UniProtKB/TrEMBL annotation:
This is Annexin. A pair of annexin repeats may form one binding site for calcium and phospholipid. The keyword Membrane applies. It is found in: Zymogen granule membrane. Belongs to the annexin family. Keywords: Acetylation, Annexin, Calcium, Calcium/phospholipid-binding, Cytoplasmic vesicle, Membrane, Phosphoprotein, Repeat.
Length: 293
């Protein structure tokens, strides 16, 4: 039978409470028993933001990342914020997987596409992140950390003009524990938080991507909590960001993001979503959010 007079409640009930792996099984079972593609069927039945959430939930994580990146690049103008959010926050494995999916799904090279759409030092930072070459060990080299902090200070605050390559080399390559130590040392040397220095020294997309890297290193859940907050506060909602974060983090760290959101803003993520959205779109986001607390 077709999905006419679609039962949205059932769709929400089933999709919001399954793992990504289970949703893939549901897609296969649907095709087997109906001889049709579930995403295609839903696409013809649903509309708007609700449809975007549902289709996002049906994609494996790297496929969804690749899809979001493709949409950020193709067409007029580039959604740099999307490129930054995804590439600054994903692990090496996640980046390798999304690159492969991008190639498979679109028969295009992600690095080439990004280089065709961005330029200068911003482009170089994204390319560095795309190599998935960050050290993911947990060891901190104390001497190196002091050296890194000193070089960052000398590359920025301490001179006319900024040696941006130094920031790239340290922020895109070193491991998280090491960078947290570098940020500590940097504060000792300069009397400033590294974020403040980046804001003073850089501008535009380069500033945004370096800040995103620093924030993800300090607290990835804090980074996403802030993305969600900014997507909803003030006039209007930036649904593309709200949807992407809710869908892509649902199975990874949503519980921690909610806790962080409450700590940072004194209100629950649930109450924010409830106040900012409506209809089935609101219902499915609240299910993904997972209750008031």
């Amino acid at each position: 039978r077709s999905l006419h007079c679609t039962n949205e409640a059932t769709i929400i009930e089933i999709l919001a409470h399954r793992t990504i792996a289970q949703r893939q099984s549901i897609k296969e079972a649907f095709k087997r028993s109906v001889g049709k593609d579930l995403p295609d069927e839903l696409r013809s039945e649903l509309t708007g933001n609700f449809e975007k959430v549902v289709l996002g939930l049906l994609m494996p994580a790297p496929v969804y990342d690749a899809y979001e990146l493709r949409n950020a690049i193709k067409g007029a103008g580039t959604d740099e914020a999307c490129l930054i959010e995804i590439l600054a926050s994903r692990t090496n494995d996640e980046i390798r997987a999304l690159r492969t999916c991008y190639k498979t799904e679109y028969d295009r090279d992600l690095e080439e596409d990004i280089c065709g759409d961005t330029s200068g030092m911003f482009c170089r930072v994204l390319v560095s992140l795309l190599t998935a070459g960050r050290d993911e060990s947990t060891t901190v080299n104390e001497v190196q950390a002091v050296q890194d902090a000193k070089e960052l200070y000398e590359a920025g605050e301490a001179r006319w003009g900024t040696d941006e390559v130094k920031f790239l080399t340290v922020l895109c390559v070193r491991n998280r524990n090491h960078l947290l130590q570098v940020f500590e040392e940097y504060r000792k040397i300069s009397g400033r938080d590294i974020e403040d220095s980046i804001k003073r020294e850089m501008s535009g997309c380069l500033e945004d991507v370096l800040l995103a890297i620093v924030r993800c290193m300090k607290s990835k859940t804090g980074f996403f909590a802030e993305r969600l907050y900014k997507s909803m506060k003030g006039l209007g909602t930036t649904d593309s960001i709200l949807i992407r974060v809710m869908v892509s983090r649902a199975e990874i760290d949503m519980v921690d993001i909610k806790a962080e959101f409450l700590k940072m803003y004194g209100k629950t993520l649930y109450s924010f979503i409830k106040g900012d959205t409506s209809g089935d779109y609101r219902k499915i986001l609240l299910e993904l959010c997972g209750g008031e607390k």
